[in-house]
Write a structure and sequence with these properties.
alpha/beta, 7-stranded mixed β-sheet, Rossmann fold, globular
Length: about 200
Amino acid sequence: MKNIGMLLSGRGSNFEAIAKNVAERRIPDARIAIVISNKHETAGIETARRLGLESLVIPSKGMQREEHDRAVAAELKKRNVDLVCLAGYMRLLSPWFVQQFPRRILNIHPSLLPAFPGLEAQQQAFAYGVKVSGCSVHFVDEELDHGPIIVQRAVNVQDGDDEHTLAARILDQEHIAYTEAINVVLEGNFQIVGRRLVRK
């Protein structure tokens, strides 16, 4: 049984989709061991409690980045977490934290990386006038939205879209892509060649 640790800062809709897929065995032989938020009273923490999952708030306000990361890492290690999944976790992780879980931290980003990294990616894509957008699940490294890509799913931009309708359709694909990526990583049948993830 593999242990997954979830980090979130807000509503955690990707966390909720992952929890559902774990419960329905679409992510087999895995369990969510801990859900950690850096903010009090988030919808994601409320969802975790409702689902009967262990949850913890480690407030980041007023703490140095690495100091907070060390507190989070200690709780993840205490529960022997095999994979760390960021689900709307609005903090940059310190290099120290990334080194604690090499090739074991996943993030989802609402664009086809390397296009539109950072905040408000859907709005950036819409404003730029792209015809195709989407989402990317990638390994986390020391740089923002940069690690090797595991799964991408494309979403066509329709003429009638605004940034909100586009974001909603991308979010639907995020819920599918994240589970697919978790299964790829937990199965372990891949290698990283340069920046490319190649399935064996």
